[in-house]
Design goal:
By secondary structure, this protein is of the alpha/beta class. Helices cover about 30% and strands about 25% of the residues. The strands form 2 sheets. The protein has a 9-stranded mixed β-sheet with strand order 14-13-12-11-7-10-9-8-15, covered by helices on one side. Strand 1, helix 1 and strand 2 form a beta-alpha-beta unit. Helix 4 runs parallel beside helix 5 and helix 5 runs antiparallel to helix 11.
Length: about 350
């Protein structure tokens, strides 16, 4: 596979700046921005000194034959069609999270990447955090033993990303905080080596989804009305075929003290808590040694972008044979099957066996 020296961005949204930084850190040139809004594309290109703006992937291919990879940074509904088009045009693809609206779309994208023999990676950027990488190394070295149980939490008190924008419309987003804040669930699964889920039990709530008092500073605001047909919170439990278990708790709007983001793991030789507070990542290890409870604390204060720069950097280094991929399409498919099952369980009011998803 030849080295990729030029890349392009598809979409100039809020995450695009991290992609630029990451690509450039890996030595790649960002040759163009592709955006359906010429004004938005030109403004972003000027800010980041990107030489060209295109209106489509076809125009990109005609004008920049040296571009070997693209990143997809658009609302969730458009991930699938743009990823499929990019792969068919011969590009390697780095796609923002979530992979797609559901597992079926993710499976289609995964199959297309394999058929075209192109690299497809998804931006599960929290894997690129310094503390997450450190914990993964400790687990792989056997220092925690077998991970039996995990808790994955990302909850907010006032964090609804707009009213009537794409984040709060199921047809465009696929769901609410469960699919939007999937990072801690992905981290938990990653730490367990992505076991196969057996069944899922979940419950969604929409108590505050139409209450402007619970809006946060994210997303596109459309006033205090519009379509808000997704959940405001989701709680769930997963049993894996390996016998391991996971609880998860995602919310945009709940009666809690403050935003809380963490993954906790309990292993046969030790435990871990990773918690993000005010752009700092605390990492605590717990063990019993000679009858004594031992706690070790590690801090990673310089990691304030939650891996958002190192993840696209990893993508380029993978393409140029300088790194192992942080993510795999098969993992993305397992994650989306789990999310599909959680939504199905919440709608049905009963546990869902993964054989039925």
């Amino acid at each position: 596979m030849p080295e990729v020296k030029q890349v392009a961005l598809v979409g100039a949204g809020s995450m695009a700046s991290y992609h630029v930084r990451g690509f450039r850190a890996a030595g790649a040139e960002v040759a163009a921005v592709v955006d359906t809004s010429p004004e938005r594309g030109r403004a972003f290109a000027a800010r980041w000194q990107i030489p060209d703006v295109c209106g489509s992937l076809g125009e990109l291919g005609r004008k920049h034959p040296g571009v070997g990879a693209v990143s997809i940074i658009v609302p969730n509904r458009f991930h699938r069609p743009l990823v499929l088009e990019a792969l068919e045009r011969g590009f390697h693809v780095f796609c923002e999270k979530p992979p797609a609206l559901n597992a079926a779309e993710t499976a289609e994208m995964t199959a297309a990447a394999a058929r075209r023999q192109r690299q497809l990676m998804f931006n599960f950027n929290n894997r690129a955090r310094l503390d997450a990488g450190f914990v993964k190394q400790e687990i792989d070295a056997g220092r925690l033993g077998r991970i039996n149980s995990v808790q994955a939490v990302w909850r907010r008190r006032t964090g609804i990303p707009g009213f009537g924008g794409w984040f709060t419309r199921r047809e465009l987003a696929g769901g609410g905080p469960l699919i939007d804040l999937l990072h801690m669930i992905d981290l938990a699964l990653w730490f367990m080596d992505y076991p196969e889920p057996e069944w899922v039990l979940a419950q969604c709530f929409d108590d505050f989804i139409n209450d402007p008092d619970f809006k946060g500073p994210w997303g596109a605001f459309s006033g205090n009305s519009g379509t808000n047909d997704v959940e405001s919170s989701c709680h769930g439990f997963v049993r894996f075929r390996s016998g391991q278990v996971m609880t998860f708790h995602n919310s945009w709007a709940e009666m809690i003290k403050h935003e809380d983001t963490f993954v906790a793991l309990q292993g046969t030789r030790g435990g871990v808590l990773l918690r993000s507070v005010n752009d700092h990542h605390d990492c605590e290890f717990y063990a019993q040694e000679n009858g004594v409870s031992v706690d070790r604390n590690y801090r990673f204060p310089d990691d304030c972008d939650m891996g958002r720069t190192r993840a696209p950097e990893n993508f380029i280094r993978v393409l140029n044979h300088g790194a192992e991929p942080l993510t795999a399409p098969s993992e993305a498919l397992t994650l989306m099957r789990l999310i599909d099952a959680a939504y199905r369980s919440a709608a049905a009011g009963r546990p869902v066996n993964m054989n039925d998803v």
